[in-house]
Design goal:
49% strand; six-stranded antiparallel β-barrel; globular; mainly beta; 14% helix
């Protein structure tokens, strides 16, 4: 039988943009849990009360997860978040994608209109891109075309998160998708090649500096 994590259990709080942050359960009451404010969340990224997120933890040798809603943000020190479970606990097979790249052109199409941006980072499970216009909402179905050197890939996905970036007068858009093995292999190969090139440049830079 699966149950919610108990007091002092270590958990991951997964925000809408897919980023996971470590925390610990401080108190429980039925479907409500109080957790320490997740470590590493920037002030600008703290969600608003009512926001949906995911809580994940390891019980025995299994990773479990449940959808939760942010009920309150505590003002005590250290600060705490009050969460309420809103779904059934599920076993989670967490897949880690190779993520990298950055700077590539990306075209995002919705309802016959296409908007161009730049990739921040890319994986076979999703892309984070920077757009100049605020044209997308969460759960929008979109077509994404990313230029990979001499080739390009096109996938259909859903907008997971949109965040305004006032410093760059732009919008960060996260889109998730599922790929075929062929497209997934192309993305993995491209990301790993970029990573190897970056390591080579770093080694050359260190050698030249010496």
């Amino acid at each position: 039988m699966t149950t919610l994590p108990t007091i002092n259990a270590l958990v991951d709080v997964v925000l809408m943009d897919g980023e996971a942050y470590q925390s610990r359960v401080e108190d429980t009451s039925g479907k409500r849990l109080t957790v320490a404010a997740p470590f590493g969340v920037a002030p600008a990224d703290v969600p608003k009360v009512g926001a949906s997120m995911e809580l994940a933890w390891v019980a025995g040798d299994r990773r479990q997860a449940v959808d939760v809603r942010l009920v309150a943000l505590g003002r005590e020190q250290p600060p705490r978040w009050s969460l309420e479970a809103v779904g059934s606990i599920r076993l989670q097979a967490r897949r880690n994608y190779v993520r990298g790249g950055g700077g590539e052109f990306v075209d995002v199409s919705r309802r016959g209109s296409t908007y161009r941006g730049r990739v921040i980072d890319l994986s076979e499970g999703g892309v984070r891109c920077r757009m100049l216009e605020d044209r997308f909402e969460r759960d929008d179905r979109v077509d994404v075309t990313v230029s990979l050197e001499t080739d390009s890939i096109t996938v259909t996905g859903s907008v997971l998160f949109v965040r305004r970036d006032p410093e760059n007068a732009s919008y960060d858009v996260i889109i998730t998708y599922e790929t075929s093995e062929l497209v997934g292999r192309a993305i993995r190969g491209y990301v790993l090649l970029r990573e190897m090139e970056e390591r080579r440049r770093n080694r050359e830079s260190v050698a030249n500096a010496g």
